[in-house]
Design a protein that fits this description.
The chain contains ten helices and twelve strands. It is globular and about 65 Å long. Strands 3-4-2-1-5-12-11-6-7-10-8-9 form a twelve-stranded mixed sheet, with helices on both faces. The chain is of the alpha/beta class and 334 residues long. The chain has two domains: 1-150 and 285-334, Isopropylmalate Dehydrogenase (3-Layer(aba) Sandwich), CATH 3.40.718; 158-277, Isopropylmalate Dehydrogenase (3-Layer(aba) Sandwich). Helix 1 packs across helix 10, helix 2 (94-109) packs across helix 3 (123-130) and helix 6 (179-195) crosses helix 7.
Length: 334
């Protein structure tokens, strides 16, 4: 997906443990076995929470991960308060889950890590055990980075989408989709395509809010009064952006070939097409951060944790994409 020549060598990635009672720990070694030395990384968490008999090499420094054999998991150990039982989050561990994320961010900001791949967290467990005050990973990472504006992108080899509004009821979308919100989403998407994907002249398609993009006002005025003026404003500034486009005709193969990312009005408008096209290969990318962050597009899967049946596909894709992005960012600065 990137047109950057992969010549630069960023610092290794760091993979956070996520919720210890979820599938994150058991995916770590599966990812290592699949990637080998292709993507250098270390797992950040309590090695006691890994599946029994996982071959590990505990590191003093992240940079030492390059010397670890491919059949062994490099680990940056982080002592947790309690044990981990698959499927049953332990409130004692909530604060440590949060500290692992903060530690990973510090590694990137200090230049020791080339990026972060985050395993899923259990938001209720963090709120119950540590009064976690953020809606999720993304908002906490944005806070740690200095309360920077961010956008959520879901990306695969077939499609990249950014919802301008995310986790809100559908009835609230028209009021939330202000010109300022839409313009910020488009600008962050443009910057992310350039900086993280190495696309020098990003092409962005914008979906309409209403059926048929409002059909000239017959099915709602938001496309005419909110979305179109923002697009005109940004086009006048040199952005290669167009729309509003009818969402029902912009995700087939021929249409997707014409843009690098689609900015959508609301959550499901963006996520349904990418999950239909590539359910296992979709990657969650946080745009706007001063460092690379990806994550698999699934949750903690407490119901199957510890059974050894969790598929690593999305985490493998997240690792590969984070490494490509780290290379792209390094190349753009050279």
């Amino acid at each position: 997906m990137s047109d950057v020549e992969k010549t630069a060598r960023p610092a290794p990635l760091v993979m956070t443990c996520g919720e210890p009672a979820g599938i994150g720990p058991e995916l770590a070694m599966k990812v290592r076995m699949a990637l080998g030395s292709e993507v250098p990384f270390a797992w950040l968490g309590d090695q006691r929470h890994l599946p029994a008999n996982t071959p590990v090499r505990v590191l003093d420094r992240l940079s030492d991960s390059a010397s670890v054999p491919a059949d062994c998991l490099p680990v940056l150990h982080h002592e947790f308060a309690g044990p981990a039982t698959p499927g049953a989050p332990n409130p004692e561990n909530a604060a440590d889950v949060i500290e692992v994320i903060a530690r990973a961010v510090k590694l990137t900001l200090d230049g020791e890590a080339g990026g972060i791949v985050t395993a899923p967290i259990h938001k209720k467990a963090l709120k119950d055990g540590a009064a976690f005050a953020f809606p999720g990973h993304t908002e906490f990472l944005a806070h740690l980075a200095g309360d920077v504006p961010v956008a959520m992108m879901l990306a695969s080899s077939q499609l990249r989408v950014v919802p301008a509004t995310i986790h809100i009821p559908l009835r609230d979308v028209p009021d939330a989709l202000s010109p300022e919100v839409l313009e910020q989403a488009i600008k962050i998407t443009h910057a992310g395509l350039y900086d993280l994907f190495g696309i020098k002249a990003p092409r962005i398609a914008v979906a309409g809010l209403n059926p048929h993009a409002g059909e000239g006002g017959a099915m709602g005025l938001e496309d005419l009064t909110v979305i179109a003026p923002v697009i005109e404003k940004l086009r006048a500034k040199g952005f290669n952006v167009w729309g509003p486009l009818p969402a029902d005709t912009m995700f087939h193969a021929r249409a997707r070939a014409g843009y690098d990312a689609a900015v959508c009005a609301y959550h499901d408008q963006a996520l349904i097409p990418i999950k239909t096209l590539d359910f296992d290969g979709g990657v969650n990318v946080t745009l706007g951060l001063p460092f690379v962050r990806t994550s698999p597009d699934h949750g903690t899967a407490l119901d199957i944790a510890g059974k050894g049946i969790a598929l690593p596909d999305s985490t493998i894709a997240a690792m590969r994409m984070a490494w490509q992005m780290a290379q792209a960012r390094l190349a753009s600065k050279s």
